[in-house]
């Protein structure tokens, strides 16, 4: 049985200027996802700015989220760190608190070799005994997982899934087929990159790891469920209605955009950790206009 499937929603991690978690705001975000009945929650991913948080604050965020879910939704916790021993401790924390899995990226200051990444992931999986999801995020880590490395990692006990980036939508089907050919049958294959994820789900990917799903889960679930049901036309129709959002993500980054969306929807008021700056007012107005148009487009798409 695959540990992850469907929509994995990645919320922001609200915090103050001192890096302290805003527990009340985080609870609101998690409650929103539980109400929508997402398939899993990706806490402390890149959208959750995990690399900007101390070990203690990561524990606090995870404890808060797990308390809010009350075990109703699996939580995948980001456990990436620069050093292997630190990643092991973070993964051990996540397991002790009750996370379903850990999301691990090949984070490094110095460029890593494939053997170094294999050893890093194997050690974290072995010493934490927490199921590990490979996080291939070359945009931030500058490391790309080759098919050979994915195949080797997929044979390591405890490494159970991969979160792939997406590039060209017309290449996802071939990429997915290739990964299916080098990984065990119970290995979960999913994709991020919200603007291409609909095509990934249509092609038969197990999981959509979604930034937008962390703040607007209902519409993202609509895409996932229609794709899973084989209703390709409906999935693409809803995705097309979201194209203005995807344009915002590409122009301003999904991270900055989703902080603005959270505020505009009245879910929580938060800013990304410095040195990342929130969107300037003209950009926020563009996001607000986009949300207004989106409501009309989605109503027409029903």
From TrEMBL:
One of its GO terms (molecular function) is 4-hydroxy-tetrahydrodipicolinate synthase activity. Keywords: Lyase. Gene3D superfamilies: Aldolase class I (3.20.20.70). The active site is at residues 135, 163. Pyruvate binds at residue 47. Its EC number is 4.3.3.7. Pfam families: DHDPS (PF00701). The keyword Lyase applies. Belongs to the DapA family. PANTHER family: 4-HYDROXY-2-OXOGLUTARATE ALDOLASE, MITOCHONDRIAL, DIHYDRODIPICOLINATE SYNTHASE. This is Dihydrodipicolinate synthase DapA. It comes from Sinorhizobium fredii (strain USDA 257). The lineage of its organism: Bacteria, Pseudomonadati, Pseudomonadota, Alphaproteobacteria, Hyphomicrobiales. The gene is dapA2.
